[in-house]
Structure formats: C-alpha cells, structure tokens
Design a protein that fits this description.
alpha/beta; Rossmann fold; about 15% strand; binds adenosine-5'-triphosphate; binds magnesium ion
C-alpha cells in the first residue's frame, strides 16, 4: 500500500444508512455447483425481500464476468482473483446499506472465508447443495456437456474441485426442495 494514500472518513455511516432504509442489511453468499440453482434462488429471495420493501442487489457471476472481471479465466489463480474482487465489491455494496445476494460458484473455501472476513457477522453463507448428477442433468447452459467433451477446462465438479462449506449458516437442497421452498426458507431467516 502506497504510504501517500490516506483513508478519508465518511460523514455518513452504515448505521445512518440503515436507519434511513429501516433494515439491518446482510450479505447472502450463495455457493454451489454450476446449475445448482444459486441465481434462480437468489433472484427469488430478492423478489420476496423487495416485496417486503427491503432494498436488495444481486451480484451474479456471469454478469460480473461481462464487465469488471472480463479479464479473468477459470484457473484456480483467476478464480481466486475473481472472488477477491467480488468480495471487495460486495463490501462496498454492503457498506451502502443494500442487502447483497452474491451468486458465484466460489469453489474454494479460502476465497469464501476471505469474503467472510471482509463482512464479519452479517455474512451468511448459503450452501446450495445439489448432486453433480442432478446439476448435470439440468445443465441449463449446456456447459457440462461441453466440459465432458473436453471443450471447457477447469470446470467445477468435472476437472476442478468444489470444496463444500464446513459450516454454512444455511443449506438448501435444490434436488429435494422446490424453488419456492428454498427461497422461503432463506427469506424467513432474514426477516
Ligand atoms: N429447487 C430448485 N432450485 C433451484 N433451481 C432449480 C430447482 N429445481 C430446478 N431448478 C432449475 O435448475 C437450474 C438452476 O440454474 P441456475 O442458473 O440458477 O444455477 P446456478 O447455480 O446459478 O449456475 P451457474 O453457477 O452456472 O451460474 C434452473 O434451470 C432452475 O429452473
Ligand atoms: Mg448463476
């Protein structure tokens, strides 16, 4: 860190913004295999919360890779940098008072723990649990098919590891529970 760069204290704090918005915001960090349902559930939860007049923002892996992280690939090293940047963006959004729903595969425990360390107690890890077989059957983007043919390298669950969370705050099993059931479970914990 350059010693000439000094932190400027803000005149309005997170607590001030929370009072304005009327809600104590959180970060929901969805992790799970591709096709497990992170984006689907996060958007459903966002709708539920929005209906309750809670301000939300969904930060979605593919969307962020279109812009801020368009220079990132899928090697372990790039995934780490991808998540580091996303964690920092999550922190900025969180500081703004918004309830942030983050949906990235985020396969590595240490990267998720880094995000947790930036947010603290308001970090809620949501493990979107779904078997590889079921995700592969769904294959909503046709990516598993390509990965099996060797057309995509470093694909989570195929030729790169997914490290399950050790103690997530919430686990939903999208192979057993419906989209609405999963979303309702999370919404209830938040409200
Ligand atoms: N109970 C369920 N919960 C969530 N999704 C479900 C469920 N049952 C079926 N699905 C379907 O599974 C697919 C999940 O895809 P989705 O894009 O949400 O996954 P993702 O985890 O965001 O994947 P990626 O990491 O590739 O972005 C959708 O087509 C969704 O309709
Ligand atoms: Mg998604």
């Amino acid at each position: 860190m350059n010693e000439n760069i000094k932190w400027h204290e803000h005149s309005i704090s997170l607590n001030d913004r929370r009072k304005l918005l009327g809600f104590s915001n959180k970060v929901l960090w969805f992790t799970g295999l591709s096709g497990s349902g992170k984006s689907t559930i996060a958007n459903e939860v966002a709708k539920n919360l929005h209906d309750k007049k809670i301000l939300t923002f969904v930060l979605d892996g593919d969307n962020v890779r279109h812009g801020l992280n368009s220079d990132m690939g899928f090697s372990s090293k790039d995934r780490e940098e991808n998540i580091r940047r996303v964690a920092e963006v999550t922190k900025l959004l969180y500081e703004s008072g918004v309830t942030v729903l983050v949906c990235f595969i985020s396969p590595f425990r240490k990267d998720r723990d880094f995000a947790r360390s930036l947010i603290g107690d308001d970090f809620i890890e949501v493990f979107v649990d779904c078997s590889l077989e079921e995700c592969e059957k769904r294959d909503p983007k046709g990516l598993y098919k390509k990965a099996r043919k060797g057309e995509i390298k470093d694909f989570t669950g195929i030729d790169q590891e997914y490290e399950k969370p050790n103690s997530p705050e919430i686990t939903i099993n999208t192979g057993k529970e419906s989209i609405e059931e999963c979303a309702e479970k999370i919404t209830q914990i938040l409200s």
